[in-house]
Amino acid sequence: IEDFIRRFRAKATKAAQVQSRVKMLEKIERIEIPENLRKVSLQIPEPPHSGRDVLRLKNIHKSYKHHKVLENLDLEIQRGAKLVIAGVNGAGKSTLMRIIANQDNQFQGERFYGTGVKLGYFAQDHGEQLDPSKDILEELEGSARLDDIPRLRSLAGSFLFSGDDVYKKVEILSGGERNRLSLLKMLLQPFNILIMDEPTNHMDIHSKEILLKDLKDYSCTLIFVSHDRSFIQGLATEVLELTPGKHRLFQGNYEYYLWRIKQEENQGDSSSQMNHGKPNSVSITKNTSHEKPSHQAEKDSNQPLSREQEKEIKAQIRRLNRSEENLLEEIGNLESKIEKLNLDLGLEENYSHAQRAKELSDQVKDYENQLHKKTHQWDEISQELQKYL
Description:
By secondary structure, the protein is α/β, with parallel strands linked by helices. 47% of the residues lie in helices and 16% in strands.
């Protein structure tokens, strides 16, 4: 937010957005990050290989007495997918997780596991299943592979159990510590599909960052439920949306899923206005037709997007994100060069030498022109990305 304000404070066309962000900053409580905060990595052992198709659910039905939770659910998951199951409370997320994890067999339909599949299941109460009489190191030794035994203390340190902490008894651990220990135990075992129900519960921000980074780099298949939006955005490559009695699979990350939902909501609003004959329905339709990209032409119809259209939109979002990242890096480099040149201009050896001072001033102007162009490009890309959010 501060970066945006600094870049566009003097730009008249951005005045309203700058003021909005200034007010936003005033409401934010600043948190000082300790300089000695440990930057660690879990270094999860590589999982055993599995077949390309790891899971298939066919026509799954699940009811509790007269209440239908899952109905006609079909799902195919391939190796390496990071699938988040999304939906309101009571939509059947945890129920589906238990079915996938082979913890619940009281359902109708068919469930198939692929070749070489080894399942690991982390439930919300997983930390309560630890042995309270054991210490942390003993718990880890009971789950680790032989090759990992010599590095257990290092791995425990990755999850912030360092030094003599590894000798703490489980019975005195906090909820967050039990969660971290249970997760580490599971990650040490030879699973190539991890099913995780709210893995970040009771975790501090730093622990979440460690887990996110390592799961993102981990080559296993992951199916998870989480209410932590940043965790989902950083990890999910596919989204399964559950609503009572229905389901939809979105072949894209969480950002893409939110964009699709917003488009559908906008569609519904436009249809409602047209049906009720509201005066502003015509102007909304005209405005939309001018602003939408050509590849979104189908989004205003009632027909769902085809798989090819979804792929095209996802590819466009990825291209825009890459372009934005590259431009921000270039802008930062130019600003650093300008800052250094201005410092050099302030040195007596330079400002007292007319030719040298002119050369430095010309370089500053050149970089400032480049910066202006790059900033304008970034602004255009940011506006384009907003159409998907």
